[in-house]
Amino acid sequence: MKSLKLSVTTPAVFIANPFLLGRKVLAFLLLFILSGCATVKDEPMNKGMSSDKFKEAEEDYFRDMDGGIKLSSGEVKGRNTWMVYSAGNDAFWDYMAARSFGTIDLLKVITSYPGSKYARDSRFSYTGMINEPGFRKATKPDQYGLWLDERTGSPDPYENAEKYPGVNGGSFYGKGSGIVGLRLFPNPAFDQAALAKWDAKKYYTDSSYYYNKKLVRPYRVGMACSFCHVGPHPLYPPADTETPEWKNLSTNVGAQYLWIGRVFGYDLKPNNFVWQLLNSSPPGALETSGIVTDNINNPRTMNAIYNVKDRLNASEAYDKERQSGNTLLLHGVTEEMHVPHILKDGADSVGILGALTRVYFNIGSFHQEWVRHFNPIVGGKTQTPISVAVAEKNSVYFQLTEKFVGNLAAFFLKASSGHHLKDVLGGEAYLAKDEKTLTLGKEVFADHCAQCHSSKQPPPQPAAGMALQKEGYLDQMRKIVMAPHFLEDNYLSDEKRYPVTEIGTHASAALGTNSIRGHVWNDFSSETYKNLPAVGKVQVHNPLDGSPYEYEMPGGGRGYYRTPSLVSLWSTAPFFHNNSLGKFTNDPSLQGRMEAFDDAAEKLLWPEKRPGTQWINGKYSGSECEKTWNLPFCSPIYRTTEESFIVINKAFLPKILRKLIEKGEDEVRIGPIPKGTPVDLLANVDLEIKLGLDQVKKHKNLLGLLINVKKSLIKIKKKNLGTEESTALLKTLVPDLLAVSKSPDFVVDRGHLFGSALSDKEKFALIGFLKTM
Predict the structure, then answer these.
(1) Are 632 and 268 spatial neighbours (Cβ–Cβ below 8 Å)?
(2) 630-665 burial, b if ≥16 CB within 10 A, otherwise e?
(3) Residue 442 three-state SS
C-alpha cells in the first residue's frame, strides 16, 4: 500500500505527492493551449466522406413495438434512428475501453461466454439489459473466439452493408449484438498484426492481457439511444424477461431495470471504491455526467418519454427562453422560444431538436473533439464549451444527427402515449371501484397536486412557486380535474422549474455544472437558464451524525428542478428524480410494478416510513433492500458496503508512476476506505482547477485535505491501526471533505412533503386516483 485516495476522481499522483498539484495545473494549461491549436475531425470526414453518403434506415422492422402503432415513413425512420443509430460512438466506447481503468468494456458485457454472469439466459435479471428478440445464446465461439449471441430470427435489414455502407466496412448501423441498443461494428484497427496478437481466452480470463491499453479488439460496440430508453412494455409485459418479443417492448418507457454498476463495472469487486460508486446508482438511474464528469455523483432516472405533443403545448403557456451565441446555430432554435425542459434540472433548454442532438454528443458522438473539453471520468481539468459551430464544420455525424432528429421528434409526437393501468390484462383489479373514494382522490389532487402536476390550468397561470396567488384558483382547478376528460391530452406537469429549496428533494442533480456558462454544454443551454438567480439556502445533514445545517446554493442555473410528469405513474416506481423512493422489485410484470408503486406511494405520502427519515431521527437500522441486495443505493445515504480501496492496475499508469507499485504487485491500492463511508463524501470533491484569486481558498482547502489524508495514512500504516481505529482517524477528515464538496447533500430520499399533512383517508383516495393516470 502506497497511499490513500479519498475520491475516485482525485488523481492518485496528488495523494502520493500533493506538491505535484502545481505541475498538474501547468499541464492542464499546456493541454488546453495545445488542444486549441489543432483541427480535429471525425472518422467519416477524415476519410473524405460527406453526410450525403449516409441515409436514414427506412424498414419498419420494429413494427410490433409500442402496441403495433401505425407510423408514417418519416416516423418509421425516426424510430429506427432511436433503435439502431449510434452516431459513430463505437469509436468512443472503444477509446474508453483502453482508458477507463478497467471499468468500461462493452464488448465484455455482450458476451455469453460459458459461466459468464452476463450470459443471455440471466442477462435481464442480473443487468437489466434487454435481450434482443431473434437471437439465442451462443452455442460456439465466433471466428475470433468470442461468444456472441447468434441470430435465429428474420435478418436485421440495418445490417445490409450494400444499402447502408459504413465508414469502416460493414453497415453504417452495425449489426445486432443480441442486446437492444448495442450494435457491433468492425474495428478498423484490427489488422493482421492485431489478429496475430489476439487471444480470446486471455481476453476473457487474463487481466494483464485485457487491461493492456494497446489491445486491439476485433469489434467496436456502438450505443443507440434505445439502450437506455427501451424497456419491458407496461401493457404487454413478457412472460419471460429473458426472452421478450418485440411486442413486449416499449421505445419510450425508459430502461427502468438497468443496473449501471453491473454494466459499466464488469471487472470490479466490492472492495474497489469505483464499484461502490457505480453501484450507488439505483437500477433505472444513471449518472449522466459520469463520463463528462462534474465531480458530483447525481444518478438520475432514464427519462420516460410520454405525451410529447401535450408537453409542447404545456411549454407554450409559459415564458420564453432566451437563446444566444452558438446555440442559435442549432436547428429550430430562435432568439426567444418556448421550450420543454428535458433534463431533471431544466438545463436542456434549447428545444427538443437541440436536446436530442446533445444526447448523441453525451453518449460519445464526435468524441475526437468531445474529450478535449474535459477529462473523462477523472475530471480536474477546467471544462470548456463544445462548440456547435466546430461540430457542424468538422463532424459528419453531427451533421447527420441534426438531420435525423427531425423524424425522431415526429416519431415521439406519434408514439409517446401513456400506458394506463386499465388497459393491462388484470389491471382493473388494482383500480378503485368506489366512486366516492375516486371523487375524493380527485378533489385532493386538485387542491394539493394539480398546480404543478397538470398541464391543464385555469387562465391565467399561477406564477412559479408553490404559493397559490390567484383568488378562486382552487375552485377552478377542481372543476378542471373533475371534468370527464381531464387526463386526456394532459402532460400532468406544468413544465416549470421550481427551486429545490421549496421542493426539498436531494439537491445534487440540481447542483450539476455541465450546462452552466462556460462549461461543456454551454451551447446547449439557454441564456435564461444560465442567468437563473440563486435559490438561497437548503438544509443538509452531516453524513456521520445526521445533524442538520444550511448550505448556500450557487446560482447561474443551479438550484432548480422541472416538474416531472405523472403520466403512467403506476408503472414507473420507484419515485423521485433519482429512483430513491420506494422498493425496487426487478420485476416488470403487473404484480411487480404494482408492488413497487404501492411501496413508493406509501413512502411519498407517509414520509416517516422512509428509511432516510428514520435515520435522521436516529432510528435507522437497515432495510429490506440491504438484506436483499447489500448495495450502496439501499441506504438513504449511499454508503460503502465493505472496506474498499481505489485500485489502479499498472496498465493504466504512466511509466513514470509505475514505481509507486510494490515489487511483484500489479496494481496500486489506495486505502483503506472504511465500510460505511458515505460514497458522495468522496465522489463530490471539487477538483476543477481554475486560476484566479477567488479560487485560492478552494485550492488551499483541497491541498490541505490531500496533505491531511497522506498524514493519516502514514499514521495508520506505521502504527498498524485496526479497522475501528483507522475509521475513527479518517472521520476527522470529514470537515475538510465537506469544505471542498460540490454537493454536501447526502440523504437521497428526502423532500416533497406536500401530501404528508393529509388524513389517511385522503391519502388512500389520492393513491386511488394516481393509479388511473
Answers:
(1) no
(2) ebbbbbbbbbbbebbbbbbbbbbbeeebeebbeeee
(3) helix
Give me Rg for the CA atoms of the chain: 26
The pLDDT value given to residue 36: 46
Residue 521 has what pLDDT? 96
Q: Would you give the end-to-end CA distance of the chain in angstroms? A: 56
What are the grid coordinates assigned to 180, written together? 437492444
Cα-Cα-Cα-Cα dihedral of 599, 602, 606, 610, to 10°? 10
Q: Give CA 660 to chain center in angstroms.
A: 34
Amino acid at 53: K
Backbone angles phi, psi at 552, to 5 degrees: -80, 115
Question: Cell triple for residue 514?
Answer: 455541465
Q: Do residues 682 and 638 make contact, with C-beta atoms less than 8 angstroms apart?
A: no
Alpha-carbon distance of 262 to 267, in angstroms, equals 9
- Structural domain containing residue 658: 12-34+642-675+687-739
Instruction: Name which of 556, 552, 562, 560 is nearest 516 in CA terms.
Output: 556
Write the CA distances from 629 to 584, 587, 636, integer angstroms: 10, 14, 14
Q: Which pLDDT does position 656 carry in this prediction?
A: 57
Q: Would residue 701 count as lying in a domain?
A: yes
Q: What are phi and psi for residue 55, nearest 5 degrees?
A: -140, 160
What is the structure's pLDDT at 220? 98
What is the C-alpha separation between 146 and 186, in angstroms, rounded?
14
List all residues 6 or more positions away from 742 whose beta carbon is below 8 Å from its beta carbon.
294, 295, 296, 511, 513, 684, 685, 686
The pLDDT value recorded for residue 563 is 96
pTM of the model: 0.90
Element spanning 65, H or E = none
707 in a structural domain: yes
Q: What are the two backbone dihedrals, phi and then psi, of residue 647, each rounded to the nearest 5 degrees? A: -115, 120
Residue 318 lies in a domain: no
Q: Residue 503 to residues 252, 465, 570: CA-CA distances in angstroms? A: 27, 10, 22
Backbone angles phi, psi at 580, to 5 degrees: -95, -15
Q: Which of 283, 344, 296 is nearest to 634 (CA)?
A: 283
Q: pLDDT tens digits for 560-611? A: 999 999 999 999 999 999 999 999 999 999 999 999 999 999 999 999 999 8
CA distance 459 to 709: 58
Given a cut of 70, the residues of the chain with pLDDT beneath it are 1-37, 461-471, 614-623, 650-668, 689-707, 709-710, 713-714, 717, 723
Number of domains, the chain: 1
- Compute, in degrees rounded to 10, the torsion defined by CA atoms 539, 540, 542, 548: 20
The verdict on residue 721 lying in a domain is: yes
